[in-house]
Predict the 3D structure of the following.
Amino acid sequence: MVRIRVLVVDDHRIFAESLAAALAAEPDVDVSAAGSGPAALRCLERAVAEGRRFDVLLVDADLGTAAGGVPAQREAGTAAGQPPHTADGIALVAGVRAAHPAVRTVVLAERDDPRRAAFALQAGASGWVAKDCSLSRLLAVVRGVLREETHLPPALLTGVLRELTAARKHRSDSERLVESLTPREHEVLRCMVAGLGRKDVAARLFLSPHTVRTHMQNVLGKLGVHSTLAAVALARRAGVRPADLAGDVVERSGQLA
């Protein structure tokens, strides 16, 4: 019998333990639980080191929220089509997708939310399921995502498709704006996405702070935004990668600043 290894990630202990116990009663399911995103990532790393990788993560959509459903880290300046930057389950989905691409993730939600469900799919989730669904339904989803299926409640399909279509449009518009940048401005933008300030960008690109300031102003103007935060949000929508602070080596070149 092929066994399915499931990790339940939820900071509500009673729910996590109850769900884990119900899943563990299945003859082909091995289940563990974690109470936070960092704990889940540690479980994944430990499992890899021990040669017993997890197959599916069941992640609470509201992971890391305070009492009353308030996100632990408020979203700041979220632009249309850009997922909220909160310390929630969707952020964990993206992290797992990057570090453990073979692991399938399913988001467990207390309410239907087409926008967040679309963000979850964009982050790499394979499903969005109500927390109060039946155990048989949840098991069907777990087995389905392992067959490369994507699972959404039928009532969410129209809304999710609308959100994904809008996100594609925003991405296309953002890509056109980014394409208007010069190579040097694009490199400055990558540094901005990486979180570097003007002085750090200047040191990295061997430019004066005054020159970097001019490039940053040009970037904001061409992108049609008024702040670094908005420029970074637009760049992320367009798929601009942050400068690799660990691996990229920026050398002097004959290109004029």
Observations:
- Strands lie at 4-9, 29-34, 56-60, 104-109, 127-130.
- The chain has ten helices and five strands.
- The mean pLDDT is 81.
